[in-house]
Amino acid sequence: KTWDAAGDVLSRLAQARLRRGDCVVALGGGTVGDLAGFAAASYLRGIGWINAPTTLLAMVDSAVGGKTGVNLSQGKNLAGAFWQPLAIVADTEVLDTLPGRAFRSALAEVVKYAMIGSDDMAAFVHNNLGALLERNPDVIEEAVLRCIAAKTAVVLRDEREAGPRQALNYGHTVAHALEAMGGFSGDITHGEAVALGMRVAGRLSVRELACPAGDIAVQDGLLDRCGFPRTHGFDPGALLDRIEHDKKATGSGVTWVLLRRRGEPSTGHAVDETSVRAALAEVFAP
């Protein structure tokens, strides 16, 4: 998912002499979808594409919403486009071959929807997380459908992320910085990074918005049940520096998605450095 890879895909589309009436098919995980969608958006100023996600993470999150892009050395998804696919085809049976770590990683996004979404979504995740971890096919299908419905409802209101869609980035400010620090090598997966990012955002939510500590305890408990670590060996100071390069940074600095309570995300918060350092130190304590 790099600039060089995008150039290679675009060259291959040109070599194949694709025309505006043709389309690209993305068969793979979120990286494949982001790359193929970006190439489709760029080639001939935009041709159609179909997204066929083959990972749980892509099915419940990245395949929906039309975000495409590639990473630059300065950060994740800094080059990209909003380009909706003609169709999304998700066959949950392909998840039978998904390695355990990749499957569990996706559950961070499922927990995210439990924290920012409806009471019904939260209850579903709480009651069915064990079955998800056991890979119950019926529960997996229901989880995918619920996550797609939840994200679609938000995207229909705010496709270009000018307002409500920003809530979907809960946990991602830290997550993208973690992935960038790891060189996008896969040493830390997207889901593992999001889980840690949610832990940081949860602590900031308590400090900044008086979010009930019990709500964040529920979040942390769900993440614990998924097997996500409560800490990691990243240096908090270096991580704070990296956060400044996140694509959500504006002229006024980095803004955070926080929770007023479970089910009530709040966007656009500029948090002072002291509070951020304290939250990072708590989660990334040696």
Strand order of the largest sheet: 1-2-5
**Mind telling me the C-alpha Rg?**
18 Å
- List the total number of helices: 11
Residue fraction in strands: 5-15%
Helix-strand sequence: HEHEHEEEHHHHHHHEEH
Helix content: 40-55%
How far the N terminus sits from the C terminus, by CA atoms, comes to 32 Å
Averaging pLDDT over every residue, what do you get? 94
User: Biggest β-sheet: count, sense, barrel?
Assistant: 3 strands, parallel
Uncertain regions spanning at least 5 consecutive residues = none
Q: What's the overall geometry?
A: globular
What structural class do the secondary elements suggest?
alpha/beta
Oligomeric organization of the protein chains: single chain
Number of strand segments = 7
How would you explain this protein's 3D organization?
A 3-stranded parallel β-sheet has the order 1-2-5. It has a two-stranded antiparallel sheet with strand order 3-4. A two-stranded antiparallel sheet has the order 6-7. α1 crosses α2, α4 (100-116) packs antiparallel against α9 and α5 packs antiparallel against α6. β3 and β4 (75-82) form a beta hairpin. It has 11 helices and 7 strands. The chain has 286 residues and is of the alpha/beta class.
